[in-house]
Amino acid sequence: MTFLEWGAAVKRTVFTILIFSLLVGIPxxxxxxxxxxxxxxxxxxxxxxLMVDLSTGDRTDELLLERNLEAPTAVELFIQSDSxxxxxxxLVSTGEILGLDGNTLDFQVERLTDTQATAATVLLAPGxxxxxxxxxKQEGKLVIGYQETAADTKEFERLAKIHHGELDxxxxxxxxxxxxxxxxLQVQEEIIYTLSLGSSxxxxxxxxxxxxxxxxxxxxxxxxxxxxxxxxxxxxxxxxMELTLPPGxxxxxxxxxxxxxQLYLYLKGYEEVR
Length: 274
Prior knowledge:
Layout: E1 3-5, E2 9-13, H1 17-23, E3 48-53, E4 59-69, E5 73-81, E6 87-93, E7 104-109, E8 118-124, E9 127-135, E10 141-150, H2 153-163, E11 175-181, E12 187-197, E13 201-209, E14 215-222, E15 225-228, E16 237-245, E17 248-257, E18 262-268
Antiparallel strand pairs: 1-15, 2-16, 3-10, 4-9, 5-8, 5-10, 6-7, 6-9, 11-18, 12-17, 13-16, 13-18, 14-15, 14-17
């Protein structure tokens, strides 16, 4: 799970498993394309929507939505609720979810309204995916926005290679700045790269790990903006995350304890202060 303090702008993510890396399970400030109405929900208009009345009874893995994907697809979710009690929304795919072990992704949802939401973008292989809800009877509603975008075939093949352990497959225009064999590496928030910006810059960041055991986390911290847990053993791919950063120093830190596998860090667009 990742915590995000919204300071610098996240301009674009392409098939970013932050998304989870940045977005799963976290209240986010959503600033563009919001619906203007009196509802407590602000689902951007590009999403198809489904709404659940939570007051009608208890639910245990109740099927909310089932979709069939004929080709690799990026599925974007946007979840809000005006009820304080905890609810679990679960995405289950018959195909692979790139960057994850297994085919299930859980969202723990409490009260999220107006400019707060839980959101994620996941890249799914062809097959079916479904959304399920577990909740107690409670006053309030749950709203889920979803959007499907066909994935570029070459990009999907590249990310699938990374998913299966071939980490040295960066996007075009990115260069390697760090790599490590995590076997036997015991570090706690060790600085592996420093960004020194004399002016505002848009930086592309891609981080991949093949670790499946132990603890692995890559964090970006500095100048009042933090991105924590960009990758981990649970969410192993952060691809083409673009951050518009104000001037200052930003440290990329690695924590690795009893992990296996490797880790690669790539950058794009960074001009170091001379």
